[in-house]
Design goal:
The structure is a single chain. The chain contains 6 helices and 12 strands. It has 238 residues and is an alpha+beta fold. The protein has a single domain, classed as Deoxyribonuclease I, Chain A. A 6-stranded mixed β-sheet has the order 3-4-2-1-12-11. A 6-stranded mixed β-sheet has the order 5-6-7-8-10-9, with helices on one face. A hairpin with a 2-residue loop joins strand 3 and strand 4. The radius of gyration is 16 Å and the shape is globular. It starts with a strand and ends with a strand.
Length: 238
């Protein structure tokens, strides 16, 4: 099974500043993932031609979709989107807004995969280190997150964790293993000259990771300001 996570920057290229959602589609299609977790997805925002990106992407890939609108922009919104080849047995969203900072959130989905239920936690954390640590602790302690503890879990997204400090805190204490390490192998931002390992994944439970990698194709380097993260895995039977 394959999961792809990507901050698509609203479909606007990081260097040419050109809006071209088709470049995002082509990059995703080339990887053929079963689950897609996208951050910074626009819905009815002027900068992206007022496209309903969640609807367009779900229609193109003919899959199940769940959108979490986090930030209001003009007459529209942007946030997190999950696309899944397989049915979604349950879906929840929680707020990770910290004080007066930009609204953030997490999606908690139970995906009914051919190998069993997979708990997918998808998020885009804040820019300040203290904010990010609060967000992780809030997520791990939330009733909705804890209620799925029996299922194999992957937490994935844009963590904005430049100094790679999140894993050593609450995530490791909660039994999660960082699979996007060493960070030197997972530099994903900025896409044209990657320096920071911002796009990360953490797993717990009966989940066997075969491979995790950053997509470094020429198209991915221009489609967004981040590079995509791809994870190949299986669920342990039992």
């Amino acid at each position: 099974m394959r999961l792809l996570s990507w901050n698509i920057h609203k479909g606007i290229g990081g260097r040419d500043r050109r809006y071209a959602l088709q470049r995002i589609i082509d990059c995703v299609e080339a990887e053929n993932p079963d689950i897609v977790c996208l951050q910074e997805v626009d819905r009815l925002v002027g900068r992206s031609c007022r496209d309903d990106q969640p609807r367009l992407l779900a229609r193109w890939f003919r899959c199940h979709s769940v959108f979490q609108a986090n930030v209001h922009v003009g007459g529209g919104t942007y946030g997190n989107l999950v696309l899944s080849r397989w049915p979604i047995a349950s879906r929840h969203r929680i707020s990770l807004r910290h004080g007066t900072r930009k609204p953030r959130g997490a999606q908690l989905l139970l995906v009914d995969s051919p190998e069993g239920n997979l708990h997918v936690v998808h998020t885009h954390l804040g820019l300040a280190e203290r904010e990010r640590h609060w967000q992780v602790e809030h997520l791990l302690g939330h009733t909705l997150f804890r209620s799925a503890a029996a299922h194999p879990t992957v937490i994935v997204g844009d963590f904005n964790d430049w100094r790679n400090t999140l894993h050593a805190g609450g995530l490791a204490g909660a039994g999660f293993r960082q699979i996007t390490s060493p960070v030197s192998h997972f530099r994903s931002f900025p896409a044209w000259l990657p320096l920071g390992s911002l796009d990360k994944a953490f797993v717990r439970g009966g989940l066997a990771v075969r491979q995790a990698r950053i997509v470094r194709t020429s198209l991915a380097r221009v489609a967004s300001d981040h590079l995509p993260l791809v994870i190949d895995f299986h669920l342990h039977s039992g």
